[in-house]
Design goal:
InterPro entries: Glc/Gal-6P_isomerase (IPR006148), Glucosamine6P_isomerase (IPR004547), NagB/RpiA_transferase-like (IPR037171). Its EC number is 3.5.99.6. The protein is built from seven helices and eleven strands. With 259 residues, it is of the alpha/beta class. It has a domain of 176 residues: Rossmann fold (3-Layer(aba) Sandwich), CATH 3.40.50.1360. Helix 1 packs across helix 2.
Length: 259
């Protein structure tokens, strides 16, 4: 078991800080495994949502190497997808997760958002129907540089909307982050719209594991934990969930280590 260098609680959110990004990812995997195995005692299938982002790399690597979880009892979803990219594009989030985890484990089922859908309303209706077939059990996610979760950027995020998936326009901070992550060469290459699971959909999950490395996220982490719970920083809603845990490396935590 990897021991955090600091543990704290803000409202109902538990925060663990680790000495390295690798330690953070492995610790997140260990808690994820514990949650999934406990859920499997009570139910046949676990319904899990995954984030497609390099912040998740260490966690997903550990999960892909797991030998204890019965993946044949997990149905997978992903939380967002660019619109307008070809489905074979390397930046396509479904492809990211297929390579990182979905093709590496024998999932019961994997449900992909169709990035090339012509009828956006119909695609939202289809995917929402899949999401609502049964309760959602666990989500692994990150926090964006602008405080977003999934693609719920501050200018469009809502805590109270009825829909579980919708089309959204991406703000320039969010789009620039994709360039910073090395996924696109320039800002103009990044799609301007996406489909995203909404905050109510994410918060409906029984368990939330949030994984946030690097100093580029330090300001967003401080806003998440020290500011008001507000759509100005969508990730602040994590402080209201009954079973959410935030995993940070020391660089991401550098502005909150004194609280």
């Amino acid at each position: 078991m990897i021991v955090p260098i600091k543990t704290l609680k803000v409202d109902t959110l538990t925060i663990h800080v680790y000495n390295s990004r690798k330690d953070m990812g492995i610790a997140a995997y260990e808690l994820y495994k514990k949650h999934v195995r406990e859920l499997m005692v009570r139910q046949k299938i676990v319904r899990a949502i995954f984030a497609a982002a390099h912040s998740q790399d260490d966690f997903l690597k550990a999960l892909a190497e797991d030998t204890e979880i019965d993946f044949t009892r997990i149905t997978g979803f992903h939380m967002d997808e660019y619109m307008g990219l070809g489905k074979d594009a390397s930046q396509n989030f479904g492809n990211f997760l297929r390579k990182a985890i979905f093709s590496r484990k024998p999932f019961h089922e994997v449900n992909y958002i169709q990035s090339d859908a012509i009828d956006i309303s119909a695609e939202c209706k289809r995917y929402e129907g899949l999401l609502r077939q049964a309760p959602l059990d666990i989500v692994s996610m990150g926090i964006g540089e602008n405080g977003h979760i999934a693609f719920n950027d501050p200018h469009e995020a809502r805590f109270d909307e009825e829909a579980w998936i919708r089309q959204t326009s991406l703000d320039n901070i969010c789009r620039q982050q994709q360039v910073n992550d090395g996924e696109f060469g320039t800002l103009s290459d990044v799609p301007e719209t996406a489909l995203t699971l909404t905050i109510p959909a994410l918060m409906s999950c029984k368990k939330v594991i949030c994984i946030v490395p690097t100093g580029r996220k330090a300001q967003a982490v401080r806003q998440t934990l020290c500011g008001p719970v507000s759509v100005a920083c969508p990730a602040s809603v994590l402080r209201t969930h009954s079973d959410a845990t935030l995993f940070l490396d020391k660089e991401a935590a550098e502005l909150i280590l004194t609280i």
